[in-house]
Structures are given as C-alpha cells and as structure tokens.
Amino acid sequence: MSYTISEAAEKVGIPATTIRYYDKEGLLPNIKRKNGIRVFEDIDLRLMGLLTCLKDTGMPIKRIREYVELTKKGDASLQERYEIIKAQRRFVMDQIRQLQFYLEELDFKDWYYNKALAAGTEKAISFDDYEKETGRKAPDDPNRKG
Amino acid sequence: MSYTISEAAEKVGIPATTIRYYDKEGLLPNIKRKNGIRVFEDIDLRLMGLLTCLKDTGMPIKRIREYVELTKKGDASLQERYEIIKAQRRFVMDQIRQLQFYLEELDFKDWYYNKALAAGTEKAISFDDYEKETGRKAPDDPNRKG
DNA sequence: CCTTGACTTAAAGCTAACTTTAAGTATTAG
DNA sequence: CTAATACTTAAAGTTAGCTTTAAGTCAAGG
Questions:
Q1: Residue A38 and which of A45, A75, A93, B27 are 20 to 30 A apart at CA?
Q2: A46, A56, A86 member nearest B110 (Cβ)
Q3: All residues at 6 or more sequence positions from A71 whose CB lies less than 8 Å from its CB, including other chains
Q4: pLDDT in tens, chain B (146 residues)
Q5: Class for domain A2-72, per CATH?
Q6: Of A43, A105, A123, which has the smallest distance from its Cβ to B53's Cβ?
Q7: What is the pTM of this model?
Q8: Where in chain A are all domains bearing CATH 1.10.1660.10?
C-alpha cells in the first residue's frame, strides 16, 4: 500500500507538518517521490512507528538520525545499532522505575487528602498513620530517615 | 534546620539558579529571607521534593503554581488539591503503561539484533520466529493484524 | 581595610521540537 | 477553463524550561 503524507499522518498519528520536519531532519531516509510529492509505503510507516517509540522514550532527534544513518549501512552497522537499542531499553526500564517511585509519592498524597477530607482539615495528620495503615513509608515524611 | 540556597540545591538536587527561577515563578511560597538572602527550612525542601515529583511526571510549571496557590488557601482547597493529585496519579499510571508498551517494542528489537548478529545478517529474519520463540507479537511485524 | 565568595536582581540568551507563514506548483472536480 | 484541494519549500516564529550575564550587595577571614 501507498499513502500520501496526510494519509500517513493519520495512520501513525503524527501531523503532516511534523512528518515533513522529520524528513528534513533526515529521520526518514529514501521516501519515494512522485512529481515531487512524497509517497509513503508500509515499510516507511513501520519505521515511523519505531521513531515514535524512540522519540517518546526520550531519544533526541539527533540521536535518532544517527540510528537511521547506521541503518543505511546495512549489516556492517548491526552491532552499533544493537548497542543503541540496548541502551534505550535500559533507559526505558530506568524511567519506569523512576515513575513507580513518583507514583508512591502520589499514592501517599492521595491517602493524605483522603484522610484530610474525611477529617475536614489537614492539620494534625499523622505521617506515622500512613505506615500503620499501608505498611509504606511516607515519601516526604519529615521524620523519614535517609 | 536552615539552609542557604546552595545547601538546599545540594540537598534536593536542583541547581541554585533553577531554585531562584522556581521562586520567581511562584512555586516556592513564603521562603524566609534574612538580609534579603533566602533561608530554606526542612518544610521548604519537602515541598521541593513534591515539586520535583510533579515536574518530572510532566506537570507544567503553570499548573504546579496553581497547586501551590491552592495550598495557601488551607483546608478550603483540600478537594481541589485532591483532584489535581488524583489526576496526576492517573497520568503517571498511563505513562508507565505507555513505557511498558514501548519496552516491548525495544524487547523485540533486542531479539532482532541478537538474531541478526548471530546470523551475520539481518536479511531474512523471520518475524514469525519472535512469536514462536517468545510467545509475543512483534510490534512492527509487517503481518501483524490491527 | 580589603579581598573573596556567596548571595541578590532583571533581563537577555539558549535549546529542542515543533508550528506557522508565505509563496508557489500540481491534480482533480465541476 | 476554473476553482478547490493537496501538496511543495525555506524561513521565521513559538513554547517551555531553564541558563547565563551583568551589575551590584553583604559578611567573614587575613
């Protein structure tokens, strides 16, 4: 299947203007043209899926371009591309861990406001109760160690 | 305990310049001054911990300021603050889910490059093998449904 | 007393990742 | 044939979140 830029935009969920920008930035190698107009194939859409993955997990466009450039070199760049993917994979795992940590902080705040709303006031909410009730340490407990 | 801005910066892991910027943006209400110089207390550091949580989970500074403003209103704003926290909590859970989805895409790529390096070439790697070997769908499998 | 270093401010500058604008070309429907 | 629509380009503009700069104040140590 072939697609115009607006069809591709619809499919991958990226505005056409942004796709042109990515193309200009060298993120979309070898997009075909017909009368100067871009023609997208399924393989291009699949690559854009990977670009979205890398971009949304925090890889800068510069680095994505490096990855795309390596891809053009074929099998000679397999190891280098593998290293990039492995690094990004570790990076994403770290992000998930970090978000889970922040989620605990928000869990505490959720508990806190629940308690405060029940009491009608946030004065005299005991941080110790959080541990007693949930078995978890209050993340911003003034008495927390470390 | 009291701290200078550079001690506070060290403690919370935010540059002093950025702390001044946050203060200017209204994210740090009622920081004490002594001869015009900011004096940080433990309670301020704890608030900065929450700010870091909100900021790093994607809340814009504008919105953080709204939250901080509400805090100043005391118990009258408990419900509103609770809504903000609940929304951010859901937002973080969505982010984690999204990252786990992207991680699967990277898991596939990891498998792919492993296989390609073993074979010496990425020509003729079967996407079907990924499902056979791991029981998972290849995220950018050209034959994938949906 | 004088220098050093930490602090102060307002304002300008920076970077990434778009987004918009302006001007033009090509295809299609009536 | 004409008008609408979809596309093209280069370049300027936007936004968030800092970061740097310039000019100055203040307290402590030698």
A1: A75
A2: A86
A3: A29, A77, A81
A4: 899 999 999 999 999 999 999 999 999 988 998 888 999 999 999 999 999 999 999 999 999 999 999 999 999 999 999 999 999 999 999 999 999 999 999 999 999 999 999 999 999 899 899 999 999 988 865 544 43
A5: mainly alpha
A6: A105
A7: 0.91
A8: 2-72
